[in-house]
Design brief:
599 residues, binds adenosine-5'-diphosphate, alpha+beta, single chain, binds magnesium ion, 32% helix
Length: 599
C-alpha cells in the first residue's frame, strides 16, 4: 500500500469549533463573563462601571456592562471579536511587563462564541456624534451599524451557552451563580477603589462603591463600618515588592480564608501561597481553624509575576515565591505587633474556639473573692498555693535581670482578683482591664519555651523517677513521641510493657510538687495526637505552657498579680494565649459610661 492511500482520521477543526473549545476555558460561568467585561472596562480607563444582571427564578438571563472608558472605533469594534485580537500587547516580550488586566485577546471572541453579544461603543474625545453597534451570535456577525450612545462602551450578553448544552447543564442555581458574581465583583471593587461600581439585578441595587483614593472607604461601603473598626493598616517596602492594605485584629475572624483578598499589580487574584503566608503571620494570635480578614495590595516587579498561567488569569505564578511569602508573613507579624490588640470588652465576641486549653484547674464558683477586705480587695492571707505560684512566677521572671524596653502594653495597677481566675487592673488612661491569669501566664511561658534555641531545653532530673502507666494504644503513640519529648527536656524511658519512667523534666516547669502534673501532661499529648494540625514540637510547647502556668482558681496575692502583669507587658504577643484565646479585655471610661447610660 502506498502512503498516500491511507485514509486520514486526523483533520483540522473548523474555526467555530476551535473558538468554542477556547471559550470553555475563559467562559466557565456567568461570573466569568462579568469578570472579563469589567476588566475590559477597567483597561479602557473607565471611571465608572455599571453592571446590570437580569434573571428569572431559575437562571441568569442577561448581563450588561456599561463603562465610560475610551470606547472603540468602528473598525476596532469588529476586530475585537476576532480571536487573539488585542490592543494591549504587540510582541512576546510585552508578556513580561503586563500592566493591563487583559492581553490574550480571547474574551470577547470566546463570549460571543457561546452567546449573543450586542456591543455598542463610541470613541472618547473623537468628536463623533454616533457610535458603532455590532451584534454577534455563536461567533457569527449578525448585524453592524451605527447607534447613539454616550462615550464609552455598552456590552449586552444574552442566551449564554445556548449552543453548548453540556456547559449550560453544568450551571448551578441562579443563587449560586449570583454569589459568584458578587464574590468576583467585591474583589475587583476593592482592587480599584478609584473606580465607582454599581451592580443591579433586575433593577435592584446590589452593590455600590464611590470613587475614592482610600480603599478603607470601599471596604466600609461593601462590608460596613463595623469591619473597618477592626482593621489595622499594613505597609511594607522591599526592593522587589511593596505591600499595603489592611488586616483584621484577631478579634475579627472567619471560618474560611475567603476574605483574605489579594491583589497583585492591581489584579485581583487567588493565591493560596500568599493567603497561607498571611494566616501564618498571625501565628498563635488566631485559633488554628479560624482565618483573618485582609485586604492587601502587592506591587511586585512585573518580571517576577507570570499572569499567563491560565486563561482566566485568576492564578499567577510568582518567581521567588518563598521569599515573597516569607516577606508577607513578616509584614503581617510586624503590623500586628505594633498594635494594641486588647479586645474591646464591650464588643460582642467574634472569637470562636474549638481547640480548648486543657487547663483543668479547680474552678471555684464565680463569686467575688475579696474575702479579706484589704484596701484593694485582695486577700493577702497566704493561700496554700502561694508558695507554688511564687515558684511559677520566678520561673518566668526574666533571668537576665535586664528590663526589656519595648513594652507592648501600658503599665497597669492591680485592683483585685476575681474568683481566683481574673485579675482586674487599671491603666493610667483610666481603662479597666480584665486579665485571664492562666492565659496570660501560659503566653509568657510559651514564648520562653519557644525562645530557647535547640538543644538548650535544659532538663532537671527528678530525684525519684515518676512511673506512668498507659494503655497499649497510648503506649504506641508515646513511644513515637520520645525523641521529640527529649528535645524539649522530657526524658522518658520505656519500662516494661505499657509502663514508662520519667527521669527528667524541663527546667521551666519548676520544682515538681506532685507527679500528677506529668501524668496529665502526657495525657494531653497522647490524646492530642489525634489533632495533627500543629507539629509535634508546637504541641509539646503548648502543653508545657499550659501545664506549667498558674492555674485558674489559684488565689494570688496582689504582689503576685502585679508581677504577672509586669511580665506580660513585655511578651512579644501579649494579647492571646497559645490557643488563640484572648488574654485580656479592655473597657474604656466611655465604654463604662455608655453601659451605665451616663452619656
Ligand atoms: P484583551 O482584553 O485580552 O485584549 P478582549 O477580547 O477582552 O481581549 O478584548 C479585545 C480588545 O477589544 C481589547 O484589547 C480592547 O482593545 C477592545 N475592548 C474590549 N472591551 C473594551 C471596552 N469596554 N472599551 C474599550 N475597548 C475595549
Ligand atoms: Mg479582555
Amino acid at each position: 500500500m502506498k502512503a498516500g492511500d491511507a485514509v486520514s482520521s486526523i483533520h483540522i477543526l473548523d474555526q467555530a469549533t476551535v473558538n468554542q473549545i477556547a471559550a470553555g476555558e475563559v467562559v466557565e460561568r456567568p461570573a466569568s463573563v462579568v469578570k472579563e467585561l469589567v476588566e475590559n472596562a477597567i483597561d479602557a480607563g473607565a471611571r465608572s462601571i455599571r453592571i446590570d444582571i437580569t434573571s428569572s427564578v431559575k437562571e441568569i438571563l442577561s448581563i450588561r456592562i456599561i463603562d465610560d472608558g475610551s470606547g472603540m472605533s468602528a473598525a476596532d469594534a469588529l476586530l475585537a471579536f476576532t480571536p487573539h485580537a488585542t490592543s494591549k500587547i504587540t510582541r512576546i516580550e510585552d508578556l513580561h511587563r503586563i500592566r493591563t488586566l487583559g492581553f490574550r485577546g480571547e474574551a470577547l471572541a470566546s463570549i460571543a462564541a457561546v452567546s449573543r453579544v450586542t456591543l455598542k461603543t463610541r470613541l472618547r474625545d473623537a468628536g463623533e456624534v454616533t457610535g458603532t453597534r455590532v451584534i454577534v451570535e455563536g461567533g457569527e456577525i449578525q448585524e453592524t451599524g451605527t447607534t447613539g450612545l454616550p462615550e464609552g462602551t455598552n456590552v449586552l450578553v444574552e442566551d449564554l451557552f445556548f449552543n453548548t448544552p453540556a456547559r449550560k447543564k453544568f450551571q448551578k442555581s441562579k443563587n449560586t451563580e449570583t454569589a459568584h458574581i458578587h464574590a468576583i465583583l467585591e474583589g475587583i471593587c476593592l482592587t480599584h477603589p478609584e473606580i465607582s461600581f454599581r451592580l443591579f439585578t433586575n433593577q435592584n441595587e446590589q452593590l455600590v462603591t464611590d470613587r475614592s483614593p482610600r480603599i478603607l472607604d470601599t471596604i466600609a461601603r461593601i462590608y460596613g463600618s463595623d469591619v473597618v473598626k477592626d482593621l489595622i493598616p499594613l505597609k511594607m517596602s522591599l526592593p522587589f515588592m511593596k505591600i499595603s492594605g489592611y488586616l483584621s485584629r484577631p478579634s475579627l475572624t472567619r471560618k474560611d480564608p475567603t476574605r483574605i483578598m489579594i491583589a497583585i499589580n492591581k489584579r485581583y487574584v487567588s493565591s493560596p501561597i500568599i493567603m497561607g503566608a498571611v494566616k501564618a503571620g498571625y501565628g498563635t494570635l488566631l485559633p488554628k481553624d479560624r482565618f483573618p480578614v485582609a485586604f492587601l495590595s502587592l506591587d511586585i516587579d512585573t518580571e517576577m509575576v507570570d499572569v499567563n498561567v491560565h486563561p482566566s488569569k485568576k492564578l499567577v505564578r510568582l518567581s521567588r515565591e518563598q521569599e515573597i511569602a516569607g516577606a508577607m508573613s513578616e509584614a503581617v507579624k510586624t503590623a500586628l505587633l505594633g498594635q494594641n490588640l486588647i479586645p474591646d470588652g464591650t464588643a460582642p465576641s467574634k472569637i470562636h474556639l474549638e481547640e480548648s486549653c486543657r487547663d483543668a484547674g479547680t474552678v471555684p464558683d464565680m463569686s467575688y473573692d475579696f474575702t479579706a477586705p484589704a484596701p484593694h480587695g485582695i486577700s493577702e492571707a497566704l493561700h496554700p498555693n502561694t508558695a507554688m505560684t511564687d515558684r511559677q512566677l520566678r520561673q518566668t521572671e526574666l533571668q537576665t535581670g535586664m528590663v526589656p524596653v519595648d513594652a507592648k502594653l501600658p503599665a497597669m495597677e492591680v485592683i483585685g482578683q476575681l474568683g481566683g481566675i481574673y485579675i482586674l487592673a487599671a491603666t493610667d488612661a483610666g481603662e479597666l482591664v480584665l486579665i485571664d491569669q492562666h492565659a496570660v501566664h501560659e503566653r509568657i511561658l510559651y514564648e520562653q519555651v519557644i525562645a530557647r534555641t535547640e538543644g538548650d531545653h535544659r532538663s532537671q532530673e527528678l530525684i525519684v523517677p515518676c512511673i506512668l502507666h498507659r494503655t497499649l494504644q497510648e503506649t504506641a503513640i508515646l513511644r513515637d513521641l520520645l525523641p521529640a519529648l527529649a528535645q524539649e527536656g522530657f526524658i522518658l524511658e520505656e519500662f516494661g510493657r505499657d509502663t514508662f519512667l520519667v527521669r527528667a523534666i524541663p527546667v521551666v516547669l519548676g520544682k515538681l510538687e506532685d507527679t500528677t502534673m506529668i501524668d496529665e501532661m502526657v495525657s494531653d499529648l497522647v490524646s492530642e495526637e489525634q489533632i495533627r494540625s500543629v507539629n509535634t514540637r508546637e504541641r509539646i510547647t503548648r502543653t508545657i505552657a499550659c501545664r506549667g502556668a498558674i492555674k485558674a482558681g489559684t488565689v494570688c496575692t496582689r504582689e503576685q498579680c502585679q508581677r504577672l502583669i509586669q511580665q506580660i507587658r513585655f511578651a512579644k504577643n501579649p494579647f492571646t494565649c497559645p490557643h488563640g484565646r484572648p488574654t485580656m479585655l479592655r473597657f474604656s471610661r466611655t465604654d463604662l459610661d455608655t453601659m451605665f447610660k451616663r452619656t
